[in-house]
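Record passed on here:
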Amino acid sequence: MEKFVPSLFPALAICGKMHRPWGMRYSERLRQRIEATDSRLCVGLDPRPGSATPAETEAFLRQVVEETYSVAAAFKPNMAYFEAMGLRGIEILDRLLSWMPREVPIILDAKRSDIGETQKYYAQSYFSHWNVDAVTLNPFLGYDSLEPFLGWEGRGIYLLAVTSNAGSADFQRRKLDDGRSVYQLVTALGERSRAAAMATDVGYVVGLTNAADVLADMPDAPLLVPGLGAQGGDLAALAAAGRTAPDVINVSRGILYADDDKTYGQRAAHWSATIRAAYQV
C-alpha cells in the first residue's frame, strides 16, 4: 500500500456531506463536472479487506481521492467492499462521504432491490443521511420498488440494465416473445419516470464488455459504464454511438491495484486520457 500523503488538496477538508450543492438536476451537475475536467472517468473506490488496519484503509482511500480528484468526473464507492469490513467499514464510508469534495458527484454502488417500504429507508439512508448524488439499483422488483427513490431533487439512480459479466446473458439479454430484450423492460421503467417528470434522473448501468450489442436500444440518459481496464472492455462502440447524455466510464482496479510503479493520480490521468482519445476519434 502506498504511503498516505496528507493535505494534497486542503480545501477538501471543508467539503462535508451537509454542503452538497443541490438546486439543479443530477444529470446537469454531472455534465458540468465532465466539462470542467474534460474527463468522463468515474473512479471506483473498492477497498479490498485484508491486513490493513481501518485507519490505514481510510488513509488509502483519502489518498486515492486526493490524487485522482482533478480528473474524476465522479467517484463510485462500492458498498460491498465496505460492508465486508463490518461496522468499521461502514464507519470508514461514513467519514469518507462526509469529507469528499462536494463538486464531484458521488455514485454509491449499492445495487439495492426490495419492496417499496424497505426501499424508502434505503433512499433515506443514501440520499438524506449520506447525501450521495446517485445510487445503483436492481430493478427486478419493478417500478413501485423504484418510486421511493424518484422524488429526490438533484439526485440520480442507475438501474442495472446490461452488466459486464457473462451472466448478463442469463436474463438481461434474453429475447422476449415481442422481440424486445429484458434490458429494454428496464429502460422502459426509466422512460416511465421521465414521462412522469419525476425529480430524480434515471440512468442505466451498461457494461463496456457488452455495450456494442445494446447501445442502439439505450435511451440517451446517463450511463454508468463499468468494464474498462481489468475487465478488458473496448471503448470504440461507446465512443461511436453519438450519445449526448453525460455518460461516465468507471475504472476501479486499474487505478487502485494496478501492478506498476505509477501513483493513483498517474493511473487515473492515463485512463482519463484514454477515454478522451476514444471520444475524439
